[in-house]
Protein 1
Amino acid sequence: MRDHDAGVSAILEDLKAGRISRRQAFKTLAALGIGTALLPALSRLASADDQLMGPGGIPLARPNKPVTLPLWEDPIKSGLEPETDGTFTIFNYADYIDKALVDEFGKLHKVKVQITTFDSIDQAITRLATHAVRVDVTEIVPDRLAQAVAGKLIKPVNPDYVPNLKKNVWPSLQSPFYDQESRYTVPYTVYTTGIGWRSDKVSEDIAKLANPWSIFWNAQAYKGYVGVLDDSREALALAMLYRGFYDINTEDPAAIDKALEDLKALIPICNPKVNITQYQTLPEGTSWLHQSWSGDLLAGVFSYLPEGTDPSVLQYWAAPRGKGPIQNDCWAISATTKKPVLAHLWLNYIIDNTVATDNFLNFNGYQPPMNSITPDALVAQGRIPASLRNAVMTPDEVGPDSLQECTLTAKGQAQWQSAYAKFVSGA
Amino acid sequence: MREHSGIYPRGLWQAFALPGVVWLLLLFLVPFYAVIGVAFGGVDPIFLIPVPAWNPLDWNADSVVQTLRGFLPGGDYWAVFLRTTLYVAIALALCLLIGYPVAYYISRHAKRTKSVLLALLVLPFWVSYLMRMLAWVNLFAPSGYVNDFLAWSHILPDPPDWLNGNPVSVILALVYGYIPYLILPLLAALDRIDKSLLEAARDLGASPFRAFLHVTLPLSMTGVLGASVIIALPMFGDYYTPNIISGSPTTSMLGNQIDLFFHGGPQPAIGASLTLILSLFLAVLMTYYMHSVARATREVRDE
């Protein structure tokens, strides 16, 4: 009997961890003689299993299926003194945080602060996983959190050290779907994926089109000046959204193939460039119509607009909630930190109202999800042009029905990557 | 067996070769075996980073076979492979058309100016390849100097968009980027040709052109082949030139596909397999070159 129970438990464990399908589990349980008495419980389990499993058996988070990440160790105790002296290392994209603010943090806590950079989040995870770098805090994206926790790359956060989270950050991101209770992260920036264009070159008022995404498939007049984000998820999602298909985390091969077909159709229409330099090319006028992240347009105005160019020529459209991607980046504490208290203080520092606003408006153009920042106030203060009002988001844009590109299974990632490789091969 | 001369310590000459051998082992063979290990290996289940299979007994050929299938007509890599080969072939031909006369002139006719011209040839190496390509972006931009000049001079009143997915620009950029690497070895080969052979040809009544055709050109063929191999190999793997100069899928090359699969995602084995297959293809070119050199050496020796 004990063997029998152990067998049932093993099957249920495999089912939970995503190692076997629900159908396989039912068949195996039936073979073990599990009768109808267990069916209600199995049905409950079956609905739970609708949530795909990711690395280490952690369920894949979706906006409407939040996940509480497991704690692999206890957070540090409250009330500890921050470490001083030595070097505090921040792991981040290049030019994604204002060096002046970093230096200020160092001065405040009497440490030397160093920024170590990575080119892509893949590179960041690889370098952390292979211990190629030893850092104290790292920038991270929600769709890599399960990997980072399962691989013990980041440490749990003690919220006592991060009061700014409750005080300053959007309520919708205080306990986000990808990290319920904010056990490992605080949000850093928030951005939508939409369409950026030059109103002095593109005659259509894209925001007023019945299907704004369709502009790319009607861009013959702008051939050579059109761009698509060089990102497998974003590029294919563009084609899905054009067709009104909103399951942008699908792993259905037919849906991915259809998106690829639509994306390839763009080549004879407008020969799009595939890059992520729209923050520079749109303001400079070498690109007229580009799939863009909201922060790029603001960064373009702040840093790349040639002298004499009217900022109002830069326009941005993002789809309403649930119809277009909205994403956010985060900060987390590296598992290798020797300064865990200071690392907590960094997480708190980065969501300080003044620090976050400075970093946004005086440096990278990417909006932090702070209650104090509103698009109307920024336009009224002349901090951003009115034409880019919708490049700044409000807290109600994030919720269970918002679209976010979330973690896929390894098989799903391979499907998306292979489809994207076919698009960029120009075949 | 060769006698030890006694003048120099035993093993002295072998010791000179040692750094090169170590360099070859550490910086070529080990990384190359790592690529093989990744191509035949797996991925870490959590991080999805490559886990090379070092032991050939553990190799899994699925990715290599899948990638090889992609090179068949109609396969995933067929079009990009053909495009890459075409771009490299045209760029190589242009490099030879431009580079050979330059090397010939410097070798044969640039007397006092030879050292100046040589310095000018080396000059591009002072600026990194990337910077030179970025300079092109500024020069060939829609409102850049090249288009301004073409419009002003009425050569092309309506100049083309050089940087918007134009294959001509990518090929010309490849020529611009790699031509110095062709001219220098070619110049060395032309310099090595014994001038008395040319004088003999002229003495026997050959016109300058026939002397060039029947003496200089055949004797410089190993140099032409060597220089061609030197630039063709990196051109085949180039990905940043089409990225910077075009950015369009219609001009992407095989190197861009390798970059995409290595850059991230769960299929590094595909990237490694593409690298291996490209290396095998290039090995064929190398073999032809080495065979030609060996044959030329034999012919010289037999004469």
Protein 2
Amino acid sequence: MSLRQKLLLMFSITVVVAVAAVGWTVSVRVRRVFDRMDQDQTAAFINQFRHEFQHRADDVASKLDRMASSDRLTRMAFDLAQGGDTATYLTEAASLAQEHRLEFLEIVNSDGTIVSSAQWPARFGYKETAVAATDKPPFLKQEELPDGSSATGLFAARSVPVAGSSIYIVGGVNLDNGFLADLPVPASTRVYLYRDGGGTFDAHKLTGAAGGDVHEAVKYQGLIDAARATAKDASGIIFLTARREDSVNATAIPLKGADDDVMAVLLIANSRRDMVEVQKHIRAIAYGVAGGGILFAIAASLWIAAKVSRPIEQLARAAEEVAEGHWNTQVEITSRDEVGTLAASFNHMTSQIVEHRERLVQSERVAAWRELARRLAHELKNPLFPLQLTVENMVRARQLSPSEFDEVFEESATALKSELANLKTIIGRFSDFSKMPKPEEAKIHAKDIIQRVLTLYEPMLQQQEPPIELEAELGEDPLTINADAELLHRALSNLVLNAIDAMPEGGVLTVSGKRRDGVVRIRVADTGKGLTSEECERLFTPYYTTKEYGTGLGLAIVQSVVADHHGTIFVESMPGNGASFVIDLPAADEASA
Amino acid sequence: MFRRFVISGVLLWCALGASARTRQHYGGTLRVEVQSDPWQEPDGIARRLTMDGLTQIDSAGAVQPALSVRWESQNDDHRWQFWIRNNVQFHDGTPLTADALAASLTQACRYGCAWSKVYTLGQSVVFTSDLPIPDLPAQLAQAKFLISHQDSQGAQQGTGPFFIAGFPGGVMLFTANNDHWGGRPFVDTVEVWPRRSIRDQWMDMSVGRTDVVEVPAEMLRQAPQQHLTVLASRPENLLLLQIASTGSLANPQLRQAIALAVDRSALYNVIFQKQGEITASILPGALTGYAFLFSPERHLNRAHELRSGATPPQLSLAVEGGNPAMQLSAERIVLNLREAGFQVQMAPAGGKIQPDIVLRQIHLETTDPRAALDEMVEATGQRVSINGSDMASIYRAEKEFLATYTVVPLLWLPQAYAIGDRVRDLRFAADGSLLIADAAIEDAK
């Protein structure tokens, strides 16, 4: 990934993260605000409900108080206290209940047996246990009805004392959808009543202000069961459908009876639609802003990254050019900051490199000339000395007889010719080295070249005493390269000959060729005595040789050929472990050579 | 002398005045209001006004001639012959013949009858049966054997003291039959207002808009408090539970448990305000004298024992008739049965599913014990076999019948009406029917 791309990515991520953080924070805050509002609304409604509940309770209590203090009931109490016939008052409760607008009313004798019941007339004579709550605050009670159902009502009990005895009245109102309908409920709030404190959850027992079954009542089961089990308020979010807008914040409030057992559960459900829609709206805005911000950030990032990375890219390109050998590369200095300083330093560096290189080249040239002159002097000196002696012999031989002079002259002439031929050879090699031809590159198969070289020298290997074993490690790959076949042949031949020279007592010559990562590697290894590290360093220097008889130009020629083919050559060797010469050449496409 | 004359004159004037008050006058319209359909079979009030039977029961409970003038039993009560009254016509003018009688009686046999065959023999009608019917004359006095025939327009025509005059505004108008064989009724017309609630009837009575209204048994105590003059019969309506002998209650032990679980005293003391009498007998004690042998006591523990080990599914109890007292009684019985461990629910009347238990009332017409047992058992849709007409036989037959626990007698209740001030001589026949033909209106001149 380039610097510009990294910068772009960093800037974009920074903007995205920032926008996301802001959006999330706002969303959380909004949700919290709405949750608080919802809690406040619920709490207010609960207070209102409790107030209304208390009002209803007080209303029931006051009705019963009025009833208990009425003449009608007093006369009845007196009559019953005197042993009057209870049958006479069988329908009295129904009449009183209707008159006082109560849904439940029972008149109970002093012995606790029902005299008259408005809600279940047939229950006369049965015991009514609610008289135990006489003159206590109103309470919730589950009331069985003739049809087998039960109703939850808000009850109160009062006594009608007369003549040392008392009768009792137990009356109340039904806690049903009518009660719910009277509650002032906000438009977004629904109130339900679950009319059973125990047993397994029955969705049909949950009723709303409109009556009938509640839609998706089973979704509230968890809260209702929790309220019933713990006898405490239970709250939670209920998802009525898969859509978040249809979720509600529900609170289940247990309604307890006289014995503190849960008789019913009031369920308040506040719609979360408004909050969800605001959240969606905010989210949409956030996404829009974030999207715009990201686009802006990308554009800005592109400009900033370009502005920041351009000079660095220029520097990088300049460095590449320097690496490619264009040492006099200079970059433009466009600013005065650290990048400008870096560019200036780069320019100075390349100037210095150029200067140093020139000096180095000069000195290398001088050194090379000196070496060449020394070598040349050394090489030429050997054959020149015998030449001098031979000429001096011939001059001295003039003093001898003509026949002796002729003999000496013949011998001297032969010696002169031999030395002159040696001189010619030496000078010819120098000439060859100085006139190394440019390679005529073509697509060739290096494998073929190697096999030709091996075929050429195999007989020689076998003729060595002791013979040298040849191991060729060539695969199926033709090892296609762009090269001059003849020059390559010469180079490989030189290496093979060197290897043969390195194994005077026999050994193994291993030649391998492989292609890997776009490089063709040719290895020529011997099992001779090896080379020291110093020898390895100087091996490719012209005129350096470890042989007794050698010009020291062979490996230099090989190196020159390899370099001309844009390749490299190095040696791997340890004393006593033989030597491996490795040539790496760029591979070419597998087109037909 | 003069003083004696004055005293005699005063005494004579008082006597004349008194006789003027007691002497019945012809004329006037008698208004009667009822809750039910006056034509409901078998004993709707309209049927009694317009039809006669072969025999009738007088106020003393004796069987008297009606459309038949005499009868004769033969072959040890296996054959009866009834001679028809002459010169009697149906209201459409059709003469009453033996054939018409036989046809009417054959039609009435869909309610069940003791004879196996009825046929005419001259001016008489002959009944034959495989079993002896010693009480046939008493049976034939029942409302279900009232004689009628269908006229050319399909209407039922009788021979009774009144005939139908019309239905103006939903009110049934009956006009006196001047040629009735029993003599012309005193009142000219009878208006029968059907399907009037008790509340509305009493309201009309209180403002003098009606002459005869019904008084349910449970309201008999409060009727005098409403300043109503009440005419009550002997207890002749039996409140009973009819229990199915198939399905959930096929086990007679369960039925017995139900019978033992019912608390009759609560029904009697509270709901029916101590009117009538508690009973466990299908015939009234006044008729048989042995009703006390059937114990009406509640035995809840025994009911539990009989029910234990057999837990029937939920039972249904229905009420025949929409009477509030009946409904309340049924709810009370449901409570009683729940205490005995039965799961019972009230079933709506007229529902598609046959209820397991039905609370109903059956009216007893006949005063003959054997006929009464037949009548009551037949009213429950069952049959009883009575070997003999003596009381012991009847007792055994009743005991055997009640031992199946398909019928649980609860209370005998009276039939009662409240009558207006201007009504005179209105009374019950022994069969519990109102003798309207013998009633008169005081201010009719």
